[in-house]
Design a protein that fits this description.
4 domains; about 45% helix; five-stranded mixed beta sheet; about 725 residues; 24 strands; TIM Barrel; 23 helices; alpha/beta; ten-stranded mixed beta sheet
Length: about 725
Amino acid sequence: MRKILAVLLLIMMVAGVRVYASSTIIVDDYLNGKDITRYDNYLVYYSFNASLKSPANQWGYEIAVNKDHFVIDCNTKATMEGGGYIISGHGTKKDQLMNVKVGDQVTIDWKTKKIIIARDPLLSSQFLAHRFLQTATVEYEHAIAVGYRFDEVFVNQLLELNREDQLVIDEIVGKENPTASEINQVSQLAKDIEARALSIKYLTSYSQTTEIRALWHRPNAASLKEDNLANLQAFVQEVKSLGFNTLFVETLWNGYVSYRSELMSTHPQVASFTYGEEYQNDYIAALIGECRKVGIDVHAWCHTFNGGDASYKAASIKDEWLLEDYQGLTLHPNVYGGSYFLDPSNPEVLTFLTNVFSEMIEKYDFAGLQLDYIRYDDNNYAQSPIRDSGYGLLPETRFKEAYGLTGDVRTLIKQSANLAKWNQWRQNNITNAVKVFSQTLRRLKPDIIISADVVADINNAKATCMQDWQTWVKRGYLDLLCPMIYTGSADVVEKDSLAIMKQMKNLSFLASGIAPTYYGYSLEINHDQFIATRAADGVAFFASQNVVGLADVSASIKTGVFRYPALSPLVKTSLVINHGLIGLKQYVQTAMINEAKQTMFLNYVDEMIEMDCENPADYQKLMEKMLDVQTMASAINSNFQRDFFVQELGHLIHILDVKISREMMAFGYYDPSDGERLDPSLFSYPKVKTEPEPEPEPETERGCLKIFTAPVWLFWGALMLLFRKKERGSI
């Protein structure tokens, strides 16, 4: 170790970098090359380019380094700056890079390609502190310029403390021979500045008024258990306080259901509990009932074609309904020990599942039903042995009959033309299943929300899992699409969300699925991905056990992107549009300083609030009014405020546009496959029964410390210690 440190010190001193003998080596390895393809377990140097990004995919981890060799960014897809570069790692090299922090110093010996990343106790801490003070200041100034609602007094207190601590750090680092105590003080102050800077990032982020905030939930999987009514109520209250408005609860999973069924067994995780006199031993009834009291919509999350796993296969599932993989196994190997898959081409399977779904919808007041595992098991034809699914006597016979083929299917698909037919046939089976389920459920409950969990990239979805979700959307089978964009990169989440929105053409809503905490990424990446889902209609977060009961994750959400409540676009149109317009009105009142222009835009918003919003013809008129008001936004002097106003109005226009399409399809007035949508005013609509509107939920001022719940106080308690004036040693 001494020899390594000696070499490191020599290299860094030659490079003109001030170092101390106590520097900690974070990475000591060799580069695989410069500006080359990053393969498995590779560590690659990427030179500066105009895109500020490396060409590597998101399945690794990267650090961006500036021209002075300090690390400035650590992320799945890091961003470099002028004169800098990126070090990108995959596999075991990714694991090493995930230990690197902003401020660490990088040295490279190009003769041997040796790379050393070290953390200097003074210079690394000083750089980190300066960097986070700068980014926090930028976040604050941006929020002020746009006019976001947040607790300015509190944020200014945090900024002032950071400035004070930065001065102390700079003074100590400027000393010729700082003491060990002073060096430790610098390290601690830098950590304090980083913690406050991240808090400022959360506190000054935009909290949207209309968006889907969905949480995937497995019963009794979170740290707050639901083993009795009081605990279930506590769980529901925590989900509400987090800001979620939609809960996807696992209702059909691993061959069980989460309720008392006449068709399938109740899952052991809920079977033995009781929930008071009102709900008895019915977990789903209790969950829906308690969620309704606080304004959370519950959807039945169903593992559609998953018949069980290695530990259990549903007793009601016949063996002849099970698919075989390429090797002839019905238990398909996977990291969970194996799964059984049902045959989507088998009419008996579709009838059975339709009966299960119908039982759910008739027995409980679910707001929606979500089709997960609406697919075949994935495949890999280049793998040895081949990985593929869909085989068995019935499916193979039906496939060969469909295309007039003879012989062994496993042999036939080795020809590319037959493989294309095999994939198309299986895609058709899944599409038909979605059609059958959607149409049956809508007959039972016309206003039910049908959603599906899918592979995000349409080409990969079709090629690997046989999910032609673009066709499902185009044919009107889905109200909501939930692509699983599971990555460490917020840039990828935003990019994929934008691409999917474009492909759906306003025919369905989109909640982008993310799972950063589940995969071990930082709170900051978690926050950034929430922001990235604003490119969609909202977020579906995986999963409850990765947020409920976790003080740090909960606090970052409650004080950040979800600090104000939001209505889901999936609820009644008049409610969500009115809520969005009221939010826009509040923005105009607080952000626009020019009195004349404020009055003008307040009048515009008031006019829109007063307009009818009960059917597609009303939506069209309101949408046209919004488009007119958008053009008036050029009168707003501030570029930031003008762009924000146009963006928010555009979001409401999008909601109305989707609602027009969805409702016209439901009335039979529009079929996207037949051509363009006709003018909604050409059709008549049923009169809406006038019912008293529910009392609006009082908006909690979530930007202030006084409203924090107990779990948030646990997180912020540590931060509050940083607010106290520290005893400064003699300097």
